[in-house]
Amino acid sequence: MSRVNSASQIALSSSVSSLGSGFAPNAVDVAFFKSMGKMHKVDDVSNCDIVWCLVDFEQQALGLPYELKVIDPSTYITLGAAIEGLSGGDAVSLREFKSDIPDKIDDAP
């Protein structure tokens, strides 16, 4: 079971309020974001089409629940860059994908 800690709630809330109307950040796991192809970020929300809030789950100590941690509350991307990033990620073979599954299950909490 995971929970959102108060620092993450504050970061998400301030990120959303700073975007203005018409924008809502899309939370995406930082590992997934890094697995995508290279994407050019823009500096200002007025130049972007997509706002991604990069998050990760962290466990403070063994046995404690995982907590959502905001890594970057406002990653501004254009639609064109997002399309390139999503279609240019690091693909693995089906064999490699299947062989990784047991390890991931064993590593799961």
Describe this structure in words.
This protein is α/β, with parallel strands linked by helices. The chain has one domain. The chain has 4 helices and 4 strands. The protein has a 4-stranded mixed beta sheet with strand order 1-4-3-2. It is flat, with a radius of gyration of 16 Å. The termini are close together. The model has no long low-confidence stretch (mean pLDDT 78).
Radius of gyration from the alpha-carbon trace, in angstroms: 16 Å
Overall mean pLDDT stands at 78
Order of helices and strands: EHEHEEHH
Main sheet strand line-up? 1-4-3-2
Largest sheet, in brief, is: 4 strands, mixed
Q: How many structurally independent domains?
A: 1
Can you tell me the overall shape? flat
Percentage beta strand: 25-35%
Task: Give the beta-strand count.
Answer: 4
Fraction of residues in helix: 25-40%
Number of helices: 4
How many angstroms does the end-to-end distance come to? 10 Å
Structural class: alpha/beta
- Low-pLDDT regions: none
